Amino acid sequence: VGSEMCIRDSFPIRTYGKGELAMCYIRGVCQHTAVKQFNEWIRTAPGLEERLLATGMKRGSRHYTPAQVQLIVNVFGEP
Questions:
Q1: Which stretches within the chain are classed as H helix?
Q2: Rounded distance, CA 46 to CA 10, Å?
Q3: Could you identify which of 33, 44, 67, 78 might form a hypothetical disulfide with 29, taking C-beta atoms 3.0 to 4.6 angstroms apart as the criterion?
Q4: Looking at the predicted structure, is the pLDDT value of residue 4 above 60?
Q5: Is the pTM of this model over 0.70?
């Protein structure tokens, strides 16, 4: 279900595993590489990491909540 959710016309805002969401944005690489690159995008997008942490996200958490996914989509657009 995960990867097919990323190719629809309208991207569903729901809970995503960190690897799952990273793979939606960064294709053609292994999940570990996608997560590392996606984390770098989040760190370098002005204010995004701070806003995610303010929602209760922990750096070691394995999922993004729907509110966190919405913040990410607001910055990067739909994958």
A1: 18-25, 31-44, 48-54, 66-76
A2: 25
A3: 33
A4: no
A5: yes
